[in-house]
Queue: 2 jobs
Job 1
Amino acid sequence: MLEGLDETAAARKALAILAEVELLRWTVPHAFGGARLDGLASDRDVSVRALCAARAELAYRSGMLDVMFVMQGLGSYPIARAGSDALRAEILPRVASGERIAAFALTEPEAGSDLGGIALRAEKRAGAWRLNGVKTFISNAGIASFYTVLARTSGEPGADRDGGKGSLTMFHVPANARGLTATRFEVIGPHPIGELHFDGVEIDDAERLGAVGEGLDVALATLARFRTSVAAAANGFARRALDESIARLKTRKQFSKPLAANQGLRFDLAEMDARLRGAELLVAEAADAVDRGERAVKEVARAKLVATETASWICDRAVQHFGGLGVKKGSVVERLFRDTRALRIYEGTSEIQKLILARELVD
Ligand SMILES: Cc1cc2nc3c(=O)[nH]c(=O)nc-3n(C[C@H](O)[C@H](O)[C@H](O)COP(=O)(O)OP(=O)(O)OC[C@H]3O[C@@H](n4cnc5c(N)ncnc54)[C@H](O)[C@@H]3O)c2cc1C
């Protein structure tokens, strides 16, 4: 379906497929032009259960379909959450239809896990904002129609108390703004990604998302909404790896019997299945709690940590079950092994999930 296409073409084709089957409508709240989905505390929110269901299925089939699906939501949610009515009406229905491509820009060379290090500065002059600085590891860089950007509006990088609370502000920046350039780089999985350079980018105050100084709250609320879906994608990749392993071990013969006749390998399959089911139940628990409007900090951190670490382990076992074929470029399990790795890093690394969970348990 997407094979043989270069990364940009594959990303665009994936988006067109998702738009055609109307899945992108799940990434935008019903109140702002998205699909009507049940069981939500408010129709101004996206359904985490729906995001998770979609991502588990998409990741089972294709990492590119998964990333293009979720970025529409992640990149546009700050607008749904904190944009003006005019901005919501202009952008969000077009995100839901696939006409506009969204991206979410927090990370900088010196600000990854610690957003208090954000140095990209937005200064207000004569009613407009001027942005200067660099963002990196931005999914959809270069193909997005717009970026939701977290910028520093006061204080100094690394000097804030509370990791940037009060000093950062979120903006909607159109990709064609003068002074904004994107350069692409590659990561190990199929993922359109790159760096953004802001060189005196001027935007109107109407592009501000929320109050000045409240950008970190908007960014964290966005992550709180979407983080569980990273875990669901991990489960999708892992389930595919388990299915691939079962099929291979049943058919591949060595020492005159199928590999699946060896107890050691059968134990592997049992453990893969049990760990995956545990991760799926954690995702269901977290998604239900977030959709009910609960705080759910522990549930989300547990689901992200366990599902992404489990998926990496499962995909690694699948590579082992395939022997040499497991590392041959182009094999399904080789792709799954690469696809899953970044999930332990983005939207809060595994270590950050442990810090969050421990804080909830101890403090
Ligand atoms: C494929 C991919 C897509 C991405 N897409 C986006 C995107 O669209 N938008 C965006 O803004 N960003 C994006 N990112 C960036 C991602 O969010 C960051 O990479 C992530 O937050 C980690 O930051 P860092 O890479 O600077 O690592 P660092 O923060 O430098 O961390 C390095 C290591 O140190 C550990 N560490 C850090 N602090 C602590 C601590 N206090 N205690 C213990 N361990 C710690 C981390 O867990 C990690 O293992 C993406 C990254 C990847 C890989």
Note: The mean pLDDT is 97.
Job 2
Amino acid sequence: MSVLVFAENWEGRFKKSTYEAVSYAAEIARQLNTSCTAVVIGAVSEEDKKGLGKYGATKVLSVANDKLKNLEAGVYTHILGDAAKSVGATHVVISFTYTGKAIAPRLSVRLKAGLVSGAIALPTSLSPFTVRKKCYSGKGLTDVVISSEIKMVAITPNSYKVNTGGADAAVEVFSPAIPDGEFKVVSKEVKKTSGKIALTEAELVVSAGRGMKGPENWGMIEQLAEALGAATACSKPVADMGWRPHHEHVGQTGITIGPNLYIAIGISGAIQHLAGVSSSKVIVVINSDKEAPFFKAADYGIVGDAFSVVPQLVEAVKKLKAAHN
Ligand SMILES: Cc1cc2nc3c(=O)[nH]c(=O)nc-3n(C[C@H](O)[C@H](O)[C@H](O)COP(=O)(O)OP(=O)(O)OC[C@H]3O[C@@H](n4cnc5c(N)ncnc54)[C@H](O)[C@@H]3O)c2cc1C
């Protein structure tokens, strides 16, 4: 019996969601009285690999392959499947990120493992192995029991805390034989957004909807996000109309996020929108209509015209920051 966790990195750096996944896997290992092994694929510094021990990994399997330039879900699945077999993993943890979503179902098939995707907490029971996730677009919770020999959990970012305190992990090179035929993806062009905070990773999110009237009014939204150090998001119609890029669209048909703070400006709060943001720890709603449904889901609300409230908020945040510097 042992626990395996995929320690995802982006261009050689671990994300916060990676530390959450390792902490989560290590806690399951602790409860099962067994060890936690992390798998790192790609060029990450030795120090960072060892450092996964701080979050509870006892061992790190380090995989480097010259052919692996970008994410190849099939190849990653092959590597993680072999790693799971080599350590006799009975439990496998992966982050429910874009990468995790591409790998988890494939790995589940390969390992014949039951998978709970989008888990939001530690297992409520280890035997039978039961994990909680959201259902009905976030309106309900369901406890899923996995009865297969190997159990897999894809944990939602920002839903489990980062635990620290462990010692350095032992790093071992792991070189599974990957048949050439497994490399199927040809990357012709990689377009990167730079200098922005990734929405899925963000702890603070400033989001706006159709109440902003048009794309020309997004300057104040960006100013607020910049002042707070937040990522920007939007409602579906805003992305559909091309006011904002599609990667900012949150909700049932967009990205699901769970930041510490979600500020919704000029968004009505339709159920499909709430489905993607209701895991936020604190929700602040700014809307000119006091009957807007979003206020029912809000921790704090401001009834007012965004065009007057947001600039005042930007000034207030800047003043506060200046006072603390
Ligand atoms: C199958 C399906 C899936 C969907 N998936 C999603 C999804 O993933 N994400 C999503 O967002 N939507 C989704 N929708 C659409 C959803 O139902 C709503 O239509 C949408 O969320 C509304 O966007 P909005 O709040 O920006 O616009 P509106 O509903 O038009 O609301 C605008 C809000 O701005 C307020 N406002 C206006 N002027 C001001 C002002 N000056 N200051 C402050 N407030 C102001 C208004 O009072 C209003 O509440 C989906 C719909 C369907 C049918």
Note: The longest strand covers residues 129-135.
